[in-house]
Each structure stands twice: as C-alpha cells, then as structure tokens.
Design a protein that fits this description.
Layout: H1 6-20, H2 28-45, E1 49-56, E2 61-68, E3 71-79, E4 82-83, H3 86-100, H4 103-130, E5 131-138, E6 142-149, H5 158-163, E7 166-173, E8 179-186, E9 190-192, E10 198-200, E11 205-214, E12 217-226, E13 229-231, E14 240-251, H6 257-263
Antiparallel strand pairs: 1-2, 1-14, 2-3, 3-4, 5-6, 6-7, 7-8, 8-11, 9-10, 10-13, 11-12, 12-14
C-alpha cells in the first residue's frame, strides 16, 4: 500500500472528523456534503450482490433480477398482470442463455452500468452546490432538508441543467449519514439550444426511495419519474418510470451467470 503524503494524511483526518460531526452541529449544506461523501465511499466499497423482484409498473412488467460480478440476469415473469405462457417463458429462457453466453453483450452491459454509476456520482457530487438548502424538520432517526435552485450554480452539461432546475426534499439517516429519500419537481422549463433542440417541461417530478437491507447495505427500492419532454439529437432525458423493487436476497459473491439464470426462475 502506498504511503499517504503529509497533505493527503491531514485531508483524510479532516474528512473523518467532518463526517463524525453530529448532524445537529452542521449547517444544512454540511449535512448534504457529509451524506454525499458517505454515499460515494459506500459506492466504492459496497460490492454486495442481490436477487430481487423488479416491478416496472409503467410498462406492466415484472422481472426477477439476479446480480453477479460479471453482470446481471433479468428474467421477465409477468406481463400485463399475467404470468408468461409456456411458450413465452421458453423464449425468455432462450434469450437469457443467448445473452449470458455472448461476451459482447455482457461487456456492453458492464460498460453501461459503469457509465450509469459515473453519471450518478457526478450528479451526486453537485448536490451541495447546485442547490440552496434548509432544514425542514428532524426526528429521532432522520433529518429532512428542502432544496431549491442555487442561482450562482453553472451546470456543466444537459443532465445537470435539468437537475439544477429542481426543488424538493432530501431525507438523510442521522446515524449513518445515508440518503433515504430524494424527491423533486422541475420549477421551470429547461430548454436546449433556445428550445430548438429540446425542452423539459415545468412540473415534472421524480422520487427515489432507498432502504437499508442489511447493516450498512443500502439499495434503491422505488424509482418514480414523470418528466415530460425530449432533447432532439441527444439521448432523451424525459422519462416516465414507475419502478418498485422488493424481495431482496443477498447473492454469494462467486455466483456465476449460469447460476444466476437458474436462480432467476420463479419457484412454485
């Protein structure tokens, strides 16, 4: 292990002391910064894998997802409120086998996941400066903060422009400094290229719920997005997403894709 330089050592000590401060001793922005630091550290260090039931209410689909170190297996089990027919289930099994034995498809899945993680980390890093923060209320377990756009913030890209036009609430677990819930609403239209390339409409909403599944292990359990609009020539930012994840079971770290495919089969 490389030795820390003297300056890095003191920076680390300062960070540890800062994170250790009780939430009531920090101002609102410090509370958010502490939560962001904690979430980023957890993202780097949490390598837990899970099997769960994924209900995509917006698409009327239910799937079983099993994560592995090599990628995830997602098996569709219901569509429009009804189980798959025998023929549909057979076709779904064939699709899964084709996917997990295709190195290019699995590599693309991992690249897409890494890109999503990178984008999420970048947006998370912007939270303390993209908004102005106020403490709304506290209880024994959590503190709720409200946020609204910081007029001095200059968003560097399209995604952050949409983010910085939001106002809403953030709920932080006081003991672990983890983000439990974040919800927001677009308080103004967001245009790209003076509206010629795209527009996100005022009033769009999002809400993300997270829960502790095991001590220190947190996962997203609900995602609700209702943002209207699109950006021409670019990836569509507007989304309609209504997704709930339940029945989490931790998966061994050495689970193979073949084992995950078998685990994804619903047992009756």
């Amino acid at each position: 292990m490389r030795m820390l330089t003297r300056s890095k050592f003191f920076c680390c000590v300062a960070l540890v002391l800062f994170v250790a401060l009780p939430l009531h001793a920090q101002n609102p922005t410090q509370i958010v910064q502490t939560a962001v630091n904690t979430e980023l550290a957890a993202s780097r260090n949490d390598h837990s894998l899970w099997k769960y039931r994924d209900e995509q209410r917006d698409a009327n689909k239910v799937s079983i997802v099993v994560q592995t170190a090599k990628g995830s297996v997602k098996r569709l089990i219901e569509r429009n409120g009804a189980p798959l027919t025998a023929a549909e289930a057979q076709a779904e099994g064939a699709r899964i086998q084709s996917t997990i034995h295709d190195p290019e498809k699995m590599a693309k899945q991992r690249r897409d996941g890494a890109s999503d993680d990178k984008n999420a980390a970048e947006l998370l890093n912007m939270l303390p400066t993209a908004f102005l923060w106020k403490i709304a209320n506290e209880n024994g377990d959590s503190v709720t903060l409200t946020f609204y756009p910081n007029p001095d913030f200059s968003p560097p890209d399209m995604e952050s422009r949409v983010l910085s036009a939001m106002a809403g609430d953030l709920v932080v677990d006081k003991k672990q400094h983890r983000i439990k819930t974040i919800s927001g609403k677009l308080v103004r239209d967001v245009t790209f290229g003076w509206g010629l390339l795209g527009r996100m409409k005022q009033g769009g909403t999002f809400r993300v719920e997270r829960r502790e599944l095991k001590p220190g292990l947190w996962q997203i359990t609900e995602t609700h997005v209702n943002i209207v609009g699109k950006a021409l020539l670019f990836k569509n930012i507007g989304q309609q997403q209504d997704e709930v994840q339940t029945d989490f079971i931790q998966v061994p770290a050495d689970t193979t894709l073949e084992q995950a495919a078998e685990m994804s089969k619903e047992k009756h």
